[in-house]
Write a structure and sequence with these properties.
Elements lengths: L4 E7 L15 H16 L8 E6 L6 H7 L5 E5 L10 H16 L1 H4 L6 E6 L7 H7 L6 E6 L2 E9 L1 H8 L10
Helix pairs in contact: 1-2
């Protein structure tokens, strides 16, 4: 049986000041990159993933993105409560906090069966081989990620709603770079 796959594209159009290793700061450029990535992923809808949730956490207007994608029942544009945190917490903190907020606020994500697979992708990046990556996930893996030494690459992570509820919810506090 094929798993129900959903993409969760995380976005921060107005990133906090002084976040270490943050390269693109310009909100217009970031918005453009988010739109380009969303176009890329929406063109592949129905191949191995069925829905897309685009979740933004800086309070930016999603109107420029909404103008491009209109009303598409397979794509949810979600603005979650903006978060503010010290820059030394790092990008991982913000990413996982955004995942928690999206899991709580998204209509699409809240209606998934516990065994569905959510693919959290950094929303500005295009994973060119996303269909192959999804197909490569072992059938019963509830957590699938790229671990590099002691670190986990947060650009692509797959997890089930059940695993999020049991292990990932609230884990952002343990990712603080202090």
């Amino acid at each position: 049986m094929t798993a129900h796959n959903v993409l969760l594209l995380t976005a921060t159009i107005f990133p906090p000041n002084n976040v270490p290793d943050l390269v693109v700061l310009d909100p217009e450029l970031r918005t453009f990159q988010y739109i380009q990535a969303l176009k890329f992923y929406s063109a592949r809808l129905g191949k191995v993933y069925q829905r897309i949730v685009f979740a933004e956490n800086s309070g930016a207007s999603l109107e420029p993105i909404s103008r491009v994608f209109g009303r598409n029942r397979l794509i949810e544009l979600l603005s979650v409560e903006p978060i503010s945190y010290p820059s030394n917490y790092g990008k991982g903190y913000g990413e996982m906090k955004l995942v928690d907020d999206a899991m709580q606020s998204s209509e699409i994500l809240s209606q998934l069966p516990p065994s569905a697979v959510i693919w959290k992708l950094t929303g500005r990046y295009r994973v060119l081989n996303i269909c192959q990556v999804i197909r490569a996930r072992p059938q019963f893996a509830e957590l699938y990620l790229d671990k590099r030494g002691a670190w986990m690459d947060m650009r692509v992570i797959a997890f089930t709603p059940r695993l999020h509820e049991q292990y990932l919810r609230g884990c952002c506090s343990s990712l603080i770079d202090v």
